[in-house]
Design goal:
The protein is α/β, with parallel strands linked by helices. The protein folds into 2 domains: about 180 residues, Glycogen Phosphorylase B (Rossmann fold), CATH 3.40.50; about 180 residues, Rossmann fold (3-Layer(aba) Sandwich). About 45% of the residues lie in helices and about 15% in strands. The chain is built from 15 helices and 13 strands.
């Protein structure tokens, strides 16, 4: 067996936070071991059913087995469901003649990790968040080949490699691409530019605060592209889509590299992928972490905020008044933005996909 004819199974799914690094690793493996066969494994109802085939990667699915957090009837059913998923996983690994399993977290990973361990198949793990998920915590006891996106992540055997991302983002030259990106997004080439995004589903609290401050943003000479999220429209007082001088809203942008190139300042949630991409391309950012959950998004942003590449404002404090008093002065201060951009880029890792491909080949040859 050589690195040119490996059978590589990649597991993960459910959210873009799992699928995006999985696909970036797959692309890097195609370059590092061009003759390899790649198979992704996800669930029948996750975003992977659309995104993985669109990237040209074959997809198999297993049943979703969530781990109940509290005592319930579902907890009693867990052993049987998990055993069934492990059997499904084993069949997939056997049919693929898998040489190595790469897991990025999510419900599908635990049964695949267990099935791979039973067969003596090497396991490679990538953890995207500062607080590792349950599947990867379990997996870290089954392998020494563990990588993390953040150096603060606490996981057995972890080595810090960064966040695998599409080469269109990791290789982005913001200065060179700015004019083309602004034209593509319907923006003025010269005006200070704020781009707002709450992710593919949008963020209602961010949308509301920005909507309440559009007049002040326009009066300050700032143009705002507001990516509201799929199915979300920000409405004006008359109930029609909000309009204002210098303000444009869209539900979605296909290709975040356009956003990163066009923005003088990005306003966003602090999901792991967003934080890592912001650092890789060196775009100044204001992060408004998701206020629910375990505080993971604030932790994701902490390193970049501490270095001065980004600001963080709690969701409850992010208001139209904060935009007027804090964000507008920042967005119109080109010197401060340039300093933030330089500090951000120093923290960025742009070759995590290649590092992961190297770790996979290392695991196979160990």
């Amino acid at each position: 067996m050589t690195s040119q004819n490996l059978s590589i199974v990649l597991a993960g799914g459910g959210t873009a936070g799992h699928i995006s690094p999985l696909l970036a690793i797959a692309a890097a493996l195609r370059s590092a071991a061009p003759g390899s066969r790649l198979l992704a494994v996800g669930t029948p109802a996750g975003m992977e059913t659309r995104l993985v085939p669109a990237a040209g990667v074959e997809l198999a699915t297993i049943d979703r087995v969530p781990f109940p957090r509290k005592p319930s009837l579902d907890l009693l059913k867990l052993p049987g469901r998990l055993a069934g998923a492990v059997r499904q996983s084993g069949r997939i690994l056997d049919e693929a003649s898998a040489d190595v399993l790469v897991g990025v977290g999510g419900y599908v990973c635990t049964p695949l990790y267990l099935a791979a361990r039973r067969r003596g198949i090497p396991i490679v793990i990538h953890e995207a968040n500062t607080r590792p998920g349950l599947a990867n915590r379990v997996g870290s006891f089954l392998t020494r080949h563990v990588a993390t996106a953040f150096d603060t992540t606490r996981l057995r055997h972890a080595r810090h490699v960064g966040m695998p991302m599409r080469t269109e983002i990791s290789g982005l030259d913001r200065d060179a691409a700015r004019g083309t990106a602004r034209e593509a997004l319907g923006l003025d080439a010269q005006k200070p530019t704020l781009i707002v995004t709450g992710g593919s589903s949008g963020a209602q609290s961010i949308n509301d605060a920005v909507a309440a401050a559009v007049q002040e943003l326009g009066a300050a000479g700032i143009q705002t592209l507001h990516i509201t999220g799929r199915g979300k429209t920000v409405k004006g007082p008359d109930g029609s889509p909000l309009t204002a001088d210098g303000y444009r809203q869209v539900e979605y942008v296909d290709g975040m590299e356009l956003v990163y190139a066009a923005a003088d300042l990005l306003l966003a949630r602090s999901g792991a992928a967003t934080v890592c991409e912001v650092a890789a391309v060196g775009v100044p950012a204001v992060f408004v972490p998701l206020p629910i959950g375990n505080g993971e998004q604030a932790l994701n942003a902490a390193g970049l905020v501490e270095t001065g590449g980004a600001l963080l404002v709690p969701d409850k404090d992010f208001t139209a008044q904060w935009i007027t008093g804090e964000l507008i002065p920042l967005a119109t201060d080109s010197g401060r933005l340039a300093t933030m951009a330089a500090k951000s880029r120093k923290l960025g890792i742009r070759n995590a996909d290649q590092r992961m491909a190297g770790l996979v080949l290392e695991a196979v040859s160990a």
